[in-house]
Amino acid sequence: MAASLRQRRLARELAAQLDRAPMSARPLREVVAQLPRLLGADQACAFLVRRREAGLWLDFFHGEQMPAGMRAAFAHWLQTAPKAFDSYDPARPDPRQRNLPLRLRDVEQITGRRDPPMVRRFLPRFALSESDQLRVLVCEGPLLLAWVGAFRQRRFGRDEVRLFAAIVPSLQRRLALERRLVEAQQRAVEIGLLLERVPAAAFLLGRSGAVLHANEVGRTLLDRDRRAIDARLLSAERAGAVAALDGQGELRLAVLQRPGDAAPLLPAARARWRLTPRQAEVLELVGEGLSNRAVAAALRCAEGTVELHVTALLEKSASESRAQLVARLWSGA
Q1: Which of 80, 126, 222, 244 is 20–30 Å from 160 (CA)?
Q2: Residue extents of the structural domains in the chain
Q3: Which residues partner with 203 through β-bridges?
Q4: Contact 253/242 with Cβ under 8 angstroms?
Q5: Which residues contact 119 (CB under 8 A, 6 or more apart)?
Q6: What SS3 string covers 127-180?
Q7: What CATH code would you report for 196-331?
Q8: What residues contact 275, with CB distance under 8 A and at least 6 apart?
Q9: 5-182 and 196-331: same fold?
């Protein structure tokens, strides 16, 4: 049966909802609630199964018209389920299954297997083993972000596959964005704790320049005159004195008040981390809050050369970030 005008309109609305939702929103649950209408399905759900050394665990589960108690039962079943619990590997899904709406018969053709343990052992408990499935493994590269799909007694057709495919790109973009946001927030918390050990006004900035975190010295300055500090941060960024903490530029470090002369700290750091003379020179300037560009200018070398030295310093000091490197230099850790 051909997709109705109402279904096609709903697909466009769901895609727009995913693309326009504010960062504070989590629209996946609302999309799942609309999947039965979109696909003419009986039930729909979205979940994420992760693999750990101890086995499988359920990260989240959103259901619409799913049987009562299924979420809790699924989480419990996964504790003893085989690693190959379904027709995909949650740790690294088959590229042929990523971001593509697939019916049960499509999955069987790809994998060459029928009735995985999920279908054979778990779904019968909820009278779903005889239902057809239409699902997509939403991925960012090899990383699984969510299983999203629907169930119904009669088979899904190509029209339903096309309707589902219309919202998958927006779904993938949204879930990937949410994952990066969560990771950035986690890094911000970790780096923020390390900044407390920097004896200067240190600020963690987001891509837009907003202050995500400031250490105690920085907070004191913000409380005293927020407008003046914002202006100084903007000037520091324009002058290239703000250092990126990751490759995407999501997190950046600004030190407005230089900690002072880091030279007395270098002999101990050089011996502790087995630095070359050039690495020690770079460390001194990085420890005083200079960006790679400013370090390159001071040492009269290419910025790319400074980046290589900073990478070596991070490795030798067992630091995961530039902020941690600075904190370890000044604290002697």
Answers
A1: 126
A2: 5-182, 196-331
A3: 214, 254
A4: yes
A5: 86, 129
A6: CCCCCEEEEEEEEECCEEEEEEEEEECCCCCHHHHHHHHHHHHHHHHHHHHHHH
A7: 1.10.10.10
A8: 269, 283, 313, 316
A9: no
- Whole-number pLDDT of residue 312: 94
The three-state secondary structure class of 40 is coil
211 with 204: CB under 8 angstroms? yes
Residue 281, SS3 per DSSP: helix
Q: How many residues does the chain have?
A: 333
What's the Cα-to-Cα distance from 141 to each of 93, 94, 96, 172, 234, rounded to whole Å?
A: 9, 11, 12, 10, 35
Mean pLDDT of 265-272: 89
Cα separation, 86 vs 107, whole angstroms? 11
What gap in Å lies between CA 294 and CA 243, rounded to an integer? 10
Q: Is the pLDDT score of 277 beyond 60?
A: yes
Structure tokens given for 166: 């219309």
| pLDDT above 90 for 331 | no
pLDDT digits (tens, 9 = 90+) for 69-124: 999 999 999 999 998 899 999 999 999 999 999 999 999 999 998 889 999 999 99
Tokens 């003379």 belong to residue: 277
Query: What's the CA gap between 314 and 123, in Å, rounded?
Result: 49
Average of per-residue pLDDT across 265-281: 91
Q: What are φ and ψ of residue 307, in 5° steps?
A: -60, -40
pTM: 0.63
For the domain 5-182, what is the CATH superfamily, name and number? GAF domain (3.30.450.40)
Q: How far is CA 248 from the centre of its chain?
A: 12
Tell whether the model's pLDDT for residue 190 goes beyond 90.
no
- Mean pLDDT of all residues belonging to the chain: 88
